[in-house]
Specification:
Length: 74
């Protein structure tokens, strides 16, 4: 059994507090697919595993984008 359409969204806003300027924002949504594994006790465990993978993928992407932005700022 395969699940799709499970997504994880991460939103990042970088705020320069003294000026109130927002120099960087990013919203990333990742969709993941997975197959039920023998170690999954039930369908909810499979769905939770897929959702966790989607959130992790979104966090990885947005953190890479933020690191790249900060690397360009002097």
């Amino acid at each position: 059994m395969q699940f799709s359409g499970t997504d994880g969204t991460c939103e990042v806003v970088l705020l320069h507090v003294p000026t109130g300027v927002i120099p960087f924002t990013r919203i990333v949504t990742s969709e993941q697919m997975a197959t039920r594994e023998k170690s999954d006790l039930d369908i909810s465990e499979t769905m939770r595993r897929v959702e966790t993978a989607a959130v992790l993928a979104s966090l990885t992407t947005v953190s890479d984008d933020l690191a790249a932005f900060l690397g360009r700022v002097k």
